[in-house]
Amino acid sequence: MKLTSLHILLTYRCNRECDHCFVWGSPHQRTTLTLLQIKAILEQAKSVGTITSVYFEGGEPFLYYITLLKAVRYAAELGFSVGIVSNAYWATNHARALNRLRPLVGLVHDLSISNDVYHGKRIQRDHTHIARVAAAELGIPTGEIAIVQPEEHDAPERVGMLPDGESEIMYRGRAAIKLTERSGQHAWSQFDACPHENLREPGRVHVDPFGLIHICQGITIGNLFETPLAELCARYNPDAHPIIGPLMRGGPAALARDYDVSHNEGYADACHLCDQTRRALRSRFSETLAPDPMYGVFESQHRSIMDRKKPSPA
Question: 73-110 burial, b for 16+ CB within 10 Å, e for fewer?
């Protein structure tokens, strides 16, 4: 596996609980990376040799602004192109937006701002506008992430990274629970491929606050606090992976068939079938279909994961 980008989930915590969120971001989530842990992750990313860009995401990374700022500086020192994904809750006025963004000048090459009705229609538009004006004044490149409502069917399908403009929803994470009743239903057997991820050669992965490496949110290949990222990349064998293998051979439909998982006749999309099938398989593949917070379980988190040895807190 040759990675070119690493996306760091600085925290699962968020000031909002959007219905479409992949990672169940919530004020009730707790797990967050320390600065020392982030530095260890960045050094591992540098040792891989092919990673050129790093994104800081969440949850909402600006909730831990000092940690975020120091992490961005360290990533830039290591030579990475740095991006941040935020909902811009902090841009309550122009002066405050400038205050938050000015220390990032020259360090951040992409500030991606969520701007859709899931985040609150009027107030989100205000915050997004203020953040973009301030970023433009400071010369920080910005973009928007906008996901349409389930009833809107003319948005471009998402492939790989989110494209500019509005994108159709993917029914995984909280969306698989909250939004599917508002969507159309399609025969489960037609979902014979993963339409969104390059599972054989991902190009980018996510690392979460536990150190887990996600090929797709909730499908992990190891923990870089236990096994170096370079080693995880070198030994990545998607065909032998108990979840990724079936998905590559025949999509979510094959995953359900291979493990004889009961299913409905119709689903909103491939992600919906995949999400529900993975939930049914979690007791069997608890180390691979992890962690609990990625599946909306906040309180009884995997102790085996939480208690794994990490770098000491900064």
Answer: ebbbeeebebbbbbbbbbbeeeeebbebbebbeebbee
